[in-house]
């Protein structure tokens, strides 16, 4: 059964381009010019993944993502946008998006993001979110125990390195930087790891 993807962008040419790329990859695609139109359809016909711009008329992309979160929808969300400030990216990830692609994009970037978000092991995403909640509550001991298990279960994933860096960034900055670089070696397009690495490197010399 083909995965169903909803594309939300107010520019017709972008919608057509993304639809063409995704259909060539074998996905079923519906496109929408506004977040409101997409929400109306999602209530009746939930997709497997949503790709959304942040720059939308009326309801913007962040508000749309928050609305999905508040209403309990758990399908993966990929942001595709020319709004690429660290604040916007951080806010989007804070509300649970799976990936962020900046415009202009390549077909390979679109295909790779969908591959990661739909076909990757769902348990990794779920466990990673649980660990991030532990870190938000400063439950570092428990989080590190779970991260260690994540390294064992997903040795080729960037996520254990990223989460380990989040756990260490305040106390062992140098080691956190090394793990962020390891995450990016495994997944060069990992925007959250890039942003964290930039912040740590700009905040002073790392621990040697």
Automatic annotation (TrEMBL):
Pfam families (UniProt xref): Response_reg (PF00072)
UniProt domain Response regulatory: residue ranges: 4-118
Keyword Phosphoprotein: yes
Gene Ontology BP annotations: phosphorelay signal transduction system
Positions of post-translational 4-aspartylphosphate modification: 53
SUPFAM superfamilies, sorted: CheY-like (SSF52172), TPR-like (SSF48452)
Alphabetically ordered keywords of this record: Phosphoprotein
Coiled coil: none
This protein's record includes keyword Phosphoprotein: yes
PANTHER family assigned: RESPONSE REGULATORY DOMAIN-CONTAINING PROTEIN, STRESS RESPONSE REGULATOR PROTEIN 1
Name of the protein this chain belongs to: Response regulator receiver protein
Organism: Kosmotoga olearia (strain ATCC BAA-1733 / DSM 21960 / TBF 19.5.1)
